[in-house]
Specification:
single chain, about 375 residues, alpha/beta, about 15% strand, elongated
Length: about 375
């Protein structure tokens, strides 16, 4: 391929680098990269790959843009709220560099479509935020012999690596043979994330992609880079390929894609019936007991104090989930207690903990304060 005069002007700062030059830029322009996720990590990755001239960028994302995304997902603007992220990402990328081919896959990556989608690209970059998709991405990349440029973020911490057994390194399963129990690791929606953190980790991932395309430098294959934004410190952990890894080891037992929701212990979507979960009540029922103190039902909020300051329901006491083991004696084990949090996940954990302590009359408020805002009081802000 030949670079046009416009391309030479656009990529001039690359062309004068001896490690890149005309030959290297042509490699970049002929490389195809699949970005799994167009959110916090996918935003800086896709934008810098487009700016660098990566010839084909694929975007896999089935979600829509939400106001809460805008704090970190710089592919999207306020005007994009409610739009599919893949479509918004394509517009942003092509506005930045019209010469980049952008292919959108407005779908959830699954065991049924992953092999077909990933096979179309040279390099895969993982910008996901859930364990089933991370294991799915890893397994498909290993089976197809594609480099998997990995990154993850949480609160103030990030990590990055490159998983590529076909290039001599380990895979994601070598580092994490088993997923954590469901609900053990909070999502960014539950735990929060510093807005600039995905920018830093995503730029590291984009850097690794360009180095792979160029065949230059020392990649993160065999290394896990850890970053703490509060301390502004990086540290590195050496990774080794596990000879007993069921996927990339000496005697692999995984030879095809599996059910990753089941592998990660996530229950299948329930069939909607008229029978409700006996451990759950609706926010309408929570309102009824708050309006009628004679019922003698106590309602507690198990979110963190910072969340309680953002919004709370009048008449509901705060006992954060983290302090419940020390404070559960403040509660009457013979009283009916309704428990709520932001969405119903942490409150269910609190319910199970209290049940282990001998509490019998417990109910989890389905949907938490988010549902309260949607269905009872819109003046309560959602976050």
């Amino acid at each position: 391929m030949q670079l046009s005069n416009d391309e030479i002007r656009r990529y001039s700062r690359h062309l004068i680098l001896p490690e890149v030059g005309m030959a290297g830029q042509k490699k970049i322009c002929s490389t195809s990269v699949l970005c799994i996720g167009a959110g916090g990590l996918g935003s800086p990755i896709a934008m810098y790959l487009a700016a660098a001239g990566v010839g084909k960028v694929g975007i896999v994302d089935f979600d829509t843009v939400d106001f809460s995304n805008l704090q970190r997902q710089i592919l999207h603007t306020t005007a994009d709220v409610g739009r599919p992220k893949a479509e918004s990402a394509k517009e942003t990328i092509q506005a930045l560099n019209p010469g980049v081919e952008v292919v959108i896959h407005n779908t959830r990556l699954s065991s049924e479509n992953a092999m077909d989608i990933i096979a179309q690209y040279d390099i895969v970059v993982d910008g996901t935020d859930n364990f089933p998709t991370r294991y799915l991405t890893n397994d498909a990349c290993v089976l197809l012999k594609k480099p998997n440029v990995y990154g993850s973020i949480f609160r103030f911490d990030g990590q990055a690596s490159v998983f590529a057994p076909h290039l001599g390194g380990p895979c994601y399963r070598c580092l994490y043979p088993e997923p954590p129990p469901p609900g053990m690791v909070p999502s960014c929606a539950e735990g929060g994330v510093l807005g600039v953190l995905p920018g830093i980790v995503g730029c590291i991932q984009a850097t690794e992609i360009l180095k792979l395309a160029l065949g230059k430098g020392s990649s993160l294959i065999g290394r896990l880079l850890l970053f703490n934004a509060l301390e502004m410190k990086f540290r590195e952990v050496r990774l080794r390929r596990d000879p007993k890894c069921p996927l990339c080891g000496e005697k692999p037992t995984i030879t095809g894609l599996i059910d990753y929701e089941q592998f990660c212990g996530i229950p299948a979507e329930p069939v909607v019936t008229s029978t409700s979960n006996p451990d759950e009540v609706t926010v309408q029922e929570m309102k009824r007991v708050l309006d009628d103190p004679k019922l003698g039902i106590k309602v507690i909020d198990v979110r963190d104090p910072d969340e309680y300051q953002i919004c709370h329901v009048k008449g509901v006491d705060l006992i954060p989930l983290g302090s419940l083991p020390q404070r559960f004696t403040e509660l009457d084990p013979n009283q009916t207690i309704y428990i709520h949090c932001k969405s119903g996940i942490r409150s269910m954990k609190a319910l199970r903990f209290l049940r282990e302590q001998g509490f019998k009359y417990l109910k989890n408020v389905k949907g938490g304060i988010s549902a309260w805002s949607d269905e009872i009081d819109p003046s309560v802000p959602k976050y």
